[in-house]
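Lab notebook, design round three. We kept the backbone fixed and only want residue identities now. Task for the bench partner: fill in a sequence for the structure below.
Input structure tokens:
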């Protein structure tokens, strides 16, 4: 993107901020405690190493017009310098006002769970629409769901996975949704693909890592297909560097 800006517009892009630790964010927030301009510690997208604050101001117009060519998105209307990397579908984010950026909540999401999904998506930098589609398929948004295999709650956590992600009560919908987003963030980072991350959520990471494919389990195939269908299809979501194979 920097090379294109230089060649096309004679602009030299500057990176004024990138990754920030929670400690650094806390210092910034203490100095400027306005959450519209400085996110509270633990909520800034800069903690996910997907965000860049860019300059100079003369480049803002070019960046807004061209960022999508390079898999970046302008995050907030009031911050012309802030751009986030969105190549992976799991990296869509939410604005300060809670409105989904790059993937609004689907109409099938019950009002009771919209805020929890939005906050978890923002905290873990996972697409809100992806989390919503998962919950629809996992439990139909039933916070008291139990599966024959022993999965519990709205996000259908097995006891071992719940413990690993600090989820004390899988029937606490807000806590379960936050843990779901945390787990999906980890799976998206590990497998680099939404279909593979979904398969790992359903069948276990080991089953996917063994072949780097969607395992040949009818339940897992149906699970991935249903969620991708709700999101508009695999073609829009798969990371280009991966080939997702359904193996017999």
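Proposed sequence:
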């Amino acid at each position: 993107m920097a090379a294109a800006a230089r060649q096309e517009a004679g602009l030299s892009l500057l990176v004024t901020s990138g990754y920030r630790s929670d400690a650094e964010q806390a210092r910034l927030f203490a100095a400027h405690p306005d959450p519209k301009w400085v996110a509270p510690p633990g909520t800034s997208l800069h903690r996910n190493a997907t965000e860049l604050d860019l300059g100079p101001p003369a480049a803002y117009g070019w960046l807004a017009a061209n960022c999508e060519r390079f898999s970046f998105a302008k995050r907030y209307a009031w911050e012309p310098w802030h751009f986030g990397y969105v190549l992976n579908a799991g990296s869509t984010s939410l604005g300060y006002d809670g409105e989904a950026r790059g993937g609004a909540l689907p109409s099938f999401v019950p009002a009771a769970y919209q805020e929890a999904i939005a906050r978890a998506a923002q905290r873990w930098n996972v697409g809100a629409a992806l989390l919503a589609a998962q919950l629809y398929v996992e439990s139909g948004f039933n916070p008291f769901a139990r599966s024959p295999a022993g999965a519990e709650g709205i996000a259908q956590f097995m006891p071992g996975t719940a413990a690993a992600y600090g989820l004390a009560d899988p029937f606490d919908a807000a806590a379960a949704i936050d843990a779901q987003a945390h787990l999906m963030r980890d799976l998206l980072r590990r497998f680099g693909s939404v279909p593979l991350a979904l398969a790992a959520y359903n069948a276990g990471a080991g089953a996917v890592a063994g072949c780097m494919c969607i395992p040949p389990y009818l339940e897992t195939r149906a699970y991935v297909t249903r969620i991708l269908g709700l999101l508009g299809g695999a073609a829009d979501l798969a990371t280009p560097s991966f080939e997702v194979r359904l193996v017999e």
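Keep this in mind before ordering anything: The radius of gyration is 19 Å.
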